[in-house]
Amino acid sequence: MRFTSAAIFSGLLTVVSAHFQLQYPAPRGPFVEPNEINFCDGYANAVSNRTEFPISGGFFSLNSEHPQWTLGVIVSTVQDPDNFANFTDSNGNEQTAVPFFQTSGEGAFCAPINLSDLTSVSLKAGMNVTLQWIFDGGDGELFQCADLTLADIPAPTNVSCSNATNAAVTPLTSAPAFTSSAASPSNTSNGAPSTAVLSLSGVLGAMAAVMALL
């Protein structure tokens, strides 16, 4: 994914020296460090055993290995999304689940995600969706996906939601609105690399919910 409106984003896919690991909801497959620069960490297909996820009052957690970073989450309602275009609406606008923001700190990070309140796409309980986390530590974009079934259930109490630091969260003033020419991953082999060439522009709204959590 290419970011053109913030200086922290590189113009090319590069070899990255730091990483992140999605903890909850469960990612599409085991973390594969060399593939993290690819769409959905290189996993081509949605999983059959989707995570049941709260449509309201949910949260996500990850581990950051970078001291300063940017993150956003996009959503697809396609049953088996395999490229970035599947995360856009009919007009080519990205379907944002968590607006892009900057923060700092290595270690655990947790933030709320309320899928029932999205304006970019209408979601309801019973739908299958895929979320894609887009992480940039300044030296390249990293991607991980989670395949979910939305439900009217509370957030799990047996999953940790904590933050390693009290670092401020700063919403970006500009954010992706992309058209995609991303190559589709192979449907015969999960973990197969995919590549993306994306043009980006747009305006980002406030991220009050995330800021309130920290």
Automatic annotation (TrEMBL):
Residues 17-165 form the Copper acquisition factor BIM1-like domain. It is found in: Cell membrane. Pfam families: BIM1-like_dom. It comes from the Eukaryota. One of its GO terms (cellular component) is side of membrane. Residues 1-18 form the signal peptide. Keywords: Cell membrane, Glycoprotein, GPI-anchor, Lipoprotein, Membrane, Signal. The keyword Cell membrane applies. Its main location: membrane. It is a lipid-anchor; GPI-anchor. This is Copper acquisition factor BIM1-like domain-containing protein. It comes from Ceriporiopsis subvermispora (strain B).
